[in-house]
Amino acid sequence: MDATFLAADPATLLVVALALLDSSDRVLMQRRPENRAQGGLWEFPGGKVEPCEGPAAALVREIAEELGISIHESDVTPLTFAASQADGTTRPIVLLLYTCRNWQGEPVPEPGAAIGWYETEALGALAMPPLDVPLAAALHLFVKNP
Ligand SMILES: Nc1nc2c([nH]c(=O)n2[C@@H]2O[C@H](COP(=O)(O)OP(=O)(O)OP(=O)(O)O)[C@@H](O)[C@H]2O)c(=O)[nH]1
To answer: pTM for this one?
Structure first.
């Protein structure tokens, strides 16, 4: 594998993502804008953890940026994670998935993005990044067997 791109920044990318659950156990999913990496795919809202930032703080920040809603660190609960290898063009990723049932505000997608509330059994029909497939399966199990 040509991994020269890793020489510039060898660190694994830490990404946090949120399964925001409503009172009917539906989850909010977000479709990435077409002009971004993995454009058009449905994912859990979230993003990269910045240097010196804790994962829960990163989640609070990303959710405010992407959906315009407020969540509190004390309301997010780790559920599971997924990890990928470097594939020649991207760094290795560790993706941490949290759940949350409390928020303030009305979720609004960023320009170019879309959002929707889905039953967890419907997630398998969405086009998702590969890392999200096991996360969605774990979320479905969690919702059905809390
Ligand atoms: N937010 C999020 N990112 C995911 C998921 N699954 C997945 O493979 N990723 C990948 O993890 C990385 C997160 O990057 P991002 O672009 O969302 O992060 P960000 O909001 O900090 O973006 P920025 O670089 O424009 O500031 C992307 O490579 C994205 O494709 C997911 O469910 N949620």
So the answer is: 0.93
Question: What pLDDT shows up at residue 4?
Answer: 65
Probe residue for ligand 1, chosen from 9, 14, 29, 48 as the CB with the greatest number of ligand atoms within 8 Å: 48
Q: For residues 106 and 69, is the Cβ–Cβ distance under 8 A?
A: yes
Q: So what's the ipTM on this one?
A: 0.93
Q: Which domains does the chain have, with CATH numbers?
A: 4-144 (3.90.79.10)
Residue 47 CA to ligand 1 centre (angstroms): 5
Say whether pLDDT at 1 is over 80.
Answer: no
**Residue 27 is which amino acid?**
V
d(CA 43, CA 31): 6
String of b and e for 36-61 (b: at least 16 CB within 10 Å)? eebeebbbbbbeebeeeeebbebbbb
Cα 7 from Cα 141, distance rounded (Å) = 39
**Residue 122's Cα: distance from chain center in Å?**
17
Give how far the C-alpha of residue 67 lies from the chain's centroid of Cα atoms, to the nearest Å: 12
